[in-house]
Amino acid sequence: MPHAPFPSVKGMPPVTDGSVDSLFAAYAASGVFGAGRMARALDVLEKMVRDDGCTVFLGLAGPLSAGGMRPIVADMVERGLVDALFTTGANAVHDLLECWECHHFHGDEAADDDELAEKGYARVFDLFVEESSFAGFEDRVQEAFDTIPEDDWRTMTPSRLLSLLGSDLEASGSILGAAARKGVPVFAPSLTDSVLGLQLFLRAQTKPTTLDVVGDMAALSDLVYGTERRGMIALGGGVPKHYMMGAATLVGGHDYALQVTLDRPEGGGLSGAPLREGKSWHKVARGADYVTVIGDTFIVFPLLYAGLLSRLRDKRGKR
Predict the structure, then answer these.
(1) What is the H or E stretch that residue 55 is in?
(2) What's residue 135's pLDDT?
(3) Terminus of the chain with fewer CB atoms < 10 Å: N or C?
(4) What is residue 254's three-state secondary structure?
């Protein structure tokens, strides 16, 4: 009987040396299901960051800052592995909370929410945060707003505001702090849908306050047009994913794309949409290298990043 024109599935050898390289080699040996997607995702990620002509976009949706992903994202920025960040307002807020020593806590998913409210805690699944932290946050952020000259508020964009807030953050592991130091723009078109947005509204009651979201689109288009190729890493979906993909329509789509999501495609929402759909919208280029990993970002991406750093140490290249 002739062999099928496809690679054969091999058994995954036990990882006896404890190395991330051996783990991903085992994933690649299988080549199918989640293991195969993980192996291909690391290949796409490596190609993306090694491509000298590629501008790399990283999108942050979901409770990444609150749940402990800040140091990984900050490290990517510090190493020069990403050229622009795209985030929800919430991730910016929780990055600031941690920098201002308002911490997040381990909780219990079975906790009674009425009791949590009485004790002054808010929660995201099994993560808790003290409501009093936000009172302190409000004072700190208004103080930070007041250090910005009034003339700057006439042309303030979300990326400019986040850069100014980040410039005063010296704590290691801060996303906004690392981005400000490295000159990496942080685009947040939905910034007003967050506690920061509420604080901007409160400031606007007594002082001139403008947030020019359209101004960021001009900066983003300059970034897109100023590169030969583009790559996208979407951790979660929502506005950050759509903003990264929408910007790429100006130039025919992303040449590399990696998505990590737990959302499903059947409802038609962008967060669960397969990346291949982006081709019909010119958000993903024809002939692009792309892969979607279905899984928890907090599990999947630290593994992928460990694999990437190992490869970058072993092979000379762009980064």
Answers:
(1) strand 54-60
(2) 87
(3) N
(4) strand
Q: CB atoms < 10 A from the CB of 62, how many? A: 24
Exposure pattern of 178-212 as b/e (b: 16+ CB <10 Å)?
bbbbeebbbbbbbbeebbbbbbbeebeeeeebebb
Helix boundaries (H) for the chain: 20-30, 33-50, 70-78, 89-99, 113-119, 131-146, 158-166, 175-182, 195-204, 213-225, 238-248, 297-314
In angstroms, the CA 124 to CA 43 distance is 33
- Do strands 84-87 and 104-106 pair parallel, antiparallel, or not at all (unpaired)? unpaired
Report the distance separating Cα 65 and Cα 190, nearest Å: 16
Which of these, 88, 53, 90, 54, lies nearest to 258 by C-alpha position? 54
Q: Measure the CA–CA gap between 37 and 293, rounded to whole angstroms.
A: 6
Residue 56, SS3 per DSSP: strand
pTM over 0.90: yes
**Could you tell me the pLDDT band of residue 286, with boundaries at 50, 70 and 90?**
very high
Neighbours of 154 (CB within 10 A): 11
Q: Which of 10, 207, 283, 315 is catalytic?
A: 283
* CA distance linking residue 249 with residue 237, whole number of Å: 17
In tens, the pLDDT along 179-219 reads 999 999 999 999 999 999 999 999 999 999 999 999 999 99
283 labelled catalytic: yes
